[in-house]
Amino acid sequence: MMTYKSRKNFAISKLASSMDDSQLTATVKAGEGALFPTSNFWFVVDTEIMLCSSRTVDVLTITRGDQSTTPAAHDSGKRCYNAITTEDVEDLETALAPITLEYILYRIALSEAYIGNIDCQLQVSVNSDFSDPVVNVDTATSQTSWLAYCAYSQSNEAWSASGMPSTDVRSIIYIGANLTIGTVYYYRWRSYKHGEVATATDYKGGVLCL
Asked: Which residue range forms the structural domain that includes residue 39?
């Protein structure tokens, strides 16, 4: 999961002392350090962006010249502030979101070819033909905590290596895969006789846009 920079509203102060172009601490006006986050935030003076890794009262520990800005000397009394930068906006634009997909399988809707145990497959792709899927999991090989089924009455069970037994209705839930916000994805659930994934047929599908 992406970690965003800390920020506080109205985090503005002035430098309590001058800085040269290489020192790794900055001191803000006495008593105003509390206006700033305690760690992991952008600190700007003039045209230099610095990353503050930690703050102790009014003293900030910093990395100089971030985001292609140039370390420079700054005079005492210069305005300084916590900013949202271009990098923050780009991080938001490419942010990831987890997905939860539920598939309710009605055994009565399946053909006689599915008598016996069955497995299910989930595919998610940016391509409508499901080439290069970003999610491609099936119950025959992925009996894990994020791909599970339960009786529709909400009793809890788990996938077994021999597939899903003959039961009228199953609620299958997938919780995983972080997808890029703003991207359109296609998804499909497929069913097949246990051990015969090549015979999988589409059972339910749709489009995701986070």
From this structure: 12-92
Return d(Cα 4, Cα 7) in angstroms, integer: 9
Residues 16 and 111 grouped into a single domain? no
- Assign 103 a pLDDT band (cuts: 50, 70, 90): low
CB neighbour burial string for 143-180, b if at least 16 within 10 angstroms, e if fewer: eeeebbbeeeeeeeeebeeebbeeeeebebebebbebe
Question: Which pLDDT score is estimated for 112?
Answer: 45
Residues 171 and 126 occupy one common structural domain: yes
Is residue 150 in a domain? yes
Q: Residues 84, 99: one domain?
A: no
Please state, in angstroms and rounded to a whole number, the distance separating the CA atoms of residues 37 and 55. Answer: 8
Angle at 48 between CA 43 and CA 50, to 5 degrees: 35
CA 144 to chain CA centroid, nearest Å: 20
Number of domains composing the chain = 2
What are the tens digits of pLDDT across the range 122-163?
889 999 999 999 888 776 665 454 445 554 444 444 445 555
Same domain assignment for residues 154 and 196: yes
